[in-house]
């Protein structure tokens, strides 16, 4: 099942820059791990914000929650999940 | 450039069912045409609504507007467009 | 997977009362059919509104969409779906 | 009377991890106590958030308030309560 | 249990004035009946709107729903219900 | 003139518990004083929140503001005021 | 007591132009009557909308409601009332 | 003084297509007239909507209102006006 | 040109009381200065909030911004500006 | 492609004034650099707020994001981006 996930990162400007560098590096690695496992399919930046849209493909909402809480930046994330149903005209299912 | 597009279809319950069938059939064909042209990349239903999320890849907002207004259901659509920026960790750009 | 579903029914006061009776009767039957199939688990009225909260247990959002669009009142419904993840302290999973 | 309760936990990322462990453990115990008393009926996680939906069955809003304020995490909770009315087609009342 | 009820009446300006007179008269009578039964306790107009705040005292949300749907104007009402819990400092409980 | 007042108390979880006890005690006393003066008529808790609905009867908005700012918790309150007009069908004016 | 009143006029584009002319003329007269009575103090257009801000000075919300419902356009108005309290630094009270 | 103006056109799908053609043609002409008078400076489409952002430069809000109500589509427009103040770093004032 | 200005003051309860006294005193003086200059015309308190509605009459939005940023409390203010157009039925322009 | 960008600056009143002066000076310089490169076209203040509307002309959302994150105040900015499509009646494209 696919989910469209909207993530806003709420990082106080005065936070320790070293902590930011460490967490940011760990975040990139964990994102790539989820991508290699075929769970995180696409990732886009929202222009002008420390925020993104992500497309996940997982078994259900419980596995999605496990993926999202595995992200090092999770404590600073404000996340909205949109459950997706298959559309008969989706180019992927049409083989287009 | 990619755009995430949220479409709600506002179709009055009392509308002519024959009109609905005709427009719906034409809508499917036009969606497939945009998919074959490589502009409409993915299409999902929003569960419980006559609504969808669509992923477009086009030159800019002007071409996107031309795609969306080419849809036969356009006069009954309430559309919100989200411009997307590339993310360095996007599985597609990483080749994952 | 469970979903919490919020349904508002938008029925114009001037609609044909006979149509309302017919659709309402069919709605009750279809709701009971979904309940007997183990998909619709609980159903509550929202006081003061022609609206309800429903708890569904289905395979995924695609099956949920099929359930909801099978309801005779679907064309007059404004539906918001909330995907649910399992909680380790849920009385059901604890056997309480 | 049943209530559907939406709880968001607002826990600052910089809070003492030991305090978090202690409160979290106490929270689990108090939730199980309310479940054993037949007041807390179901509990779901909202995917991607430190948040949940809970179904309570209590005498009235005053008893519900007592349940909710008994939770150790209450000072960090943002709670919205939805009063529920019985629906004649609820699978529980139909014995389905 | 007490409930604070916010009611907006959505009456199209072009509706039949005679229908309005009939329904309005029946509405006043039904409101007085609920007041005499001790269920509808207070009623205020919201200035500048065809809307009101009402204070109900009933057994639970199910009885409240029965009261509200007994109102002749119910099909034209947009109603929001606020469940109330007792406050230890309420002048009524203090005998003030 | 009556006013319906919605009060949310925004008290940081980490505040000094002793300060909380002192202010809370003073708050109860001031509320009872306003009740004895016939200005604060009813007071309800909003279940699940440190919040309440209050019914005031005062000369005008200026006197209401004086009442509200006299509350010891005022600096931590987020207050929304709803002006009320008399309704000819109010049980109080009908003597019901 | 003064009130700041926000009025949106919701007039369907297809309504009878003659009705519009008649009601509009009556509206202007009634507005001037309220102004001469010292109740309607100021009136501004909201640019780009068939809407206005109005400043009323009346005894209370009940009289304000009577003023507003006396307007011929009232059935087509969506009105929000803001109760005002006196400010010690108001130029009018300072005689500036 | 400059104003940023957000315009949504609310045109029912079932309206007479001939009326639409006539009004649309008149709208284009009136827009060009305002542009030639130096009042309408820039005009953009909002992708996916029958809506636009417009930049006006006029004496004040009263003249802006006169410009906007001169548009043939005005009765079908939902308009939000944003007043703009000069910024010392504006490329136009810097001659960039 | 007139502007209706909505100001919320966001002053943390724990701030230094001496700073509050100093800034508050300076705020009153600057408000009176703007009033004497004929720019600040009316000032009302919003009951129950540290907030106000203000009526300004200035050349344009640039001068309004200069007035507002001259207020000592400006760094703690959340301000929304409403541009006003003249109304032909305004009592002031009618000499009423 | 053009973008309309809405920027709110969220600067705590208690921040170090020297830091503010340094960042503000750097912000002005970077804004002028973007203007000279032809990317930042117009810049307006929102009256009463530390906020602005900016008009950008860049290749796409990815370049826009690079421009915005190059601003020294970026960590304190809350930014909303509006993608713009060309309008055939835009005075610029008409050569007006």
TrEMBL record, chains A, B, C, D, E, F, G, H, I, J:
It catalyses: (S)-muconolactone = (4,5-dihydro-5-oxofuran-2-yl)-acetate. SUPFAM superfamilies: Dimeric alpha+beta barrel. Keywords: Aromatic hydrocarbons catabolism, Isomerase. Homodecamer. The keyword Cell inner membrane does not apply. Its EC number is 5.3.3.4. It comes from the Bacteria. InterPro entries: Dimeric_a/b-barrel, MLI_dom, Muconolactone_d_Isoase. This is Muconolactone Delta-isomerase. Belongs to the muconolactone Delta-isomerase family. It comes from Hydrogenophaga defluvii. Residues 1-90 form the Muconolactone isomerase domain.
């Amino acid at each position: 099942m696919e989910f469209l996930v909207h993530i806003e990162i709420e990082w106080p400007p005065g936070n320790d820059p070293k902590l930011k560098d460490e967490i940011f590096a760990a975040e990139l690695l964990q994102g790539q791990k989820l991508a290699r496992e075929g769970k995180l399919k696409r990732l886009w930046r929202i222009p002008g914000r420390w925020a993104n849209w992500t497309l996940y493909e997982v078994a259900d909402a419980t596995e999605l929650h496990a993926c999202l809480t595995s992200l090092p930046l999770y404590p600073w994330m404000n996340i909205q999940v949109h459950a997706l149903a298959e559309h008969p005209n989706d180019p992927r299912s049409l083989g287009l």
